[in-house]
Amino acid sequence: MHKKINFGVSLILIAQLVLLCSCRSTSLDVRTNGKVAEIVERGTILVGTTGDYRPLSFREADGTYWGFGIEMAKEIAKRIGVGVEFKKTSWPTLTADVLAKPQKFDLAIGGITITDARRATMLMSEGYLANGKTILCRASEADRYKSLADIDKPEVRVMVNPGGLNEKFANENLTHATIIVHPKNEEIPSLVAEGNADVMITEITEAPYYVKTDTRLAAPLLNAPFTHGEIGVLMQKGQEDLLQIVNNFIRQMKADGSLRKLHKKYGLVYGYR
């Protein structure tokens, strides 16, 4: 009986949340068989994240997670009124993990770029972080790279992590450079700094963290990214009720200034008016 009472109260709170947060006139369908109802009944939202992408999502050796996306996930859980449990995924398996049946997690977060290809088979939230492709290199060689053409040379060793958009970008745009695929994204900055590669293809969301924490590194093209996009939350189709809560949450954070504060906390560029 106690569980049923909490379940009903939580659904009422969800409906109130949507009415308060929504920037549109639509309201959430809080059917008892919807995804949000399932999460509420379980008492925990399951969040997939790679844990290899400082400062958006990183898993420490003791299993704890931290980062911009991790804070977003915890706040989403708080607003639904449940706990949060993080599930490990990877860039090569991200799509398969999101689409898995039975589901491995309810949503995925942390450095996931919004693309048409992902939207064709999955749901993606509105953007909460502007991003774009850029590079990390050794600070001593920062003047060497002023354009993509300066990188696309046979003598330049470009390192990327497998299975994600960084590898895709490198393969499509660097036809002359020597591309090295390294399995652990979080190790690549140090490998570049130590001379095992010359350049890392990364994002404007990731590069500033490594420049700040490792004086051997530089991001000379940070203010002139090769691409422009946004990062969002990824989930299975058919979860429109959960998507609406996530979108309302992002809109509210933009409206009340809390998203800007979170950008500032992690040293990220705020790309929204």
Write up what this structure looks like.
This protein has about 270 residues and is α/β, with parallel strands linked by helices. It contains eleven helices and 15 strands. A five-stranded mixed beta sheet has the order 11-10-12-9-13, sandwiched between helices. Strands 5-1-6 form a three-stranded parallel beta sheet. It has a three-stranded antiparallel beta sheet with strand order 2-3-4. Helix 7 links the parallel strand 10 and strand 11. The N terminus is likely disordered.
Compact overview of the structure:
This protein has 273 residues and is of the alpha/beta class.
Helix/strand layout:
Elements (H helix, E strand, L loop, with lengths): L1 H20 L13 H8 L1 E6 L2 E2 L3 E3 L5 E2 L1 H13 L2 E6 L5 H6 L7 E2 L7 H6 L1 E2 L4 E3 L1 E6 L9 H4 L5 E4 L4 H9 L4 E4 L6 H6 L5 E5 L3 H7 L3 E2 L10 E3 L2 E2 L4 H17 L1 H8 L8
Parallel strand pairs: 1-5, 1-6, 10-11, 10-12
Antiparallel strand pairs: 2-3, 3-4, 7-15, 8-14, 9-12, 9-13
Helix pairs in contact: 1-2, 1-10
